[in-house]
Design goal:
The protein is of the alpha+beta class and 237 residues long. The chain has two domains: 95 residues, no CATH class; 107 residues, Chitinase A, domain 3, CATH 3.10.50. A hairpin with a 5-residue loop joins strand 1 and strand 2.
Length: 237
């Protein structure tokens, strides 16, 4: 009787109905069967996985087109020990040239997108612009001291790209962050010095005042305009 009650209680407290769980299990089995039919061995599935990894990496570098047949031929030639169609010098030159061209195209596209966003944004009500190109709006004003560039500050913040993707947030971590103001990106150095303690500002930071032409990690692409909501908690450690 007790076991029956516990079992029923677990089902009742679950946020996923039993029929939904069974449906998900069935879908997983179906996917597994499909994969087993597609790949005859672990080498086959790993080969496809290598292709996925290579493709994502090259696409992230700005490449839009690649001849898959030539990629496969080159890999097969290497594994078969056949003479390659390019010398090592030609190989490096070909890769360098196509990546440089892709990077230049990527720069143009992302720079143009960022400039268009900022040009439109600066005309919105409540948006202020500084000579450096920083844009900001006051979400909540306050009366209090403002930090200097050499001060340590404590802030809560959320950072997003122009498409709304959140790339960092102290709110998600559940605690503010403390740092030396002159050791962060230029957009923060300038913007936070405008803020009285207790205020909440939103900054629109052009890439020149952010992470520049290199970006930062996988989450912030090169030439990205950054949008930060910042609350200045206190000045000093």
């Amino acid at each position: 009787m007790i076991k029956t009650w516990i079992f029923c209680g677990l089902i009742a407290s679950s946020s996923v109905p039993v029929w939904a769980q069974q449906k998900e299990i069935s879908a997983i089995k179906k996917r597994e069967n499909t994969l087993n039919n597609m790949f005859e061995s672990k080498v086959d599935s790993a080969s496809y996985a290598f292709g996925l990894s290579m493709g994502r990496d090259l696409k992230s570098r700005g490449l839009k087109h690649l001849n898959g047949q030539m990629v496969a031929q080159a890999i097969n030639d290497i594994f078969a020990g056949k003479p390659t169609l390019l010398s090592e010098e030609q190989e490096y030159t070909a890769i360098r040239e196509v990546l440089m061209a892709a990077a230049e195209e990527q720069k143009k596209e992302r720079s143009a997108m960022g400039e268009a966003f900022l040009a439109k944004n600066k005309n919105k009500a409540g948006i202020h612009s500084t000579p450096s190109g920083l844009q900001y709006e006051v979400i909540r004003d306050a009366v209090g001291p403002k930090p200097r560039a050499t001060d340590s500050v404590t802030v809560n913040y959320k950072g997003t790209l122009v498409d709304g993707k959140v790339f960092d947030s102290s709110y998600d971590r559940g605690e503010p962050i403390t740092f030396q103001l002159n050791q962060v990106i230029a957009g923060w150095q300038e913007g936070i010095q405008l803020m009285p303690v207790g205020s909440h500002y939103r900054f629109y930071i052009p890439y020149q005042l952010g992470y520049g032409e290199r970006g930062a990690g996988n989450d912030i692409p090169p030439y990205s305009v950054l949008i930060f909501d910042v609350e200045l908690v206190k000045i000093g450690g």
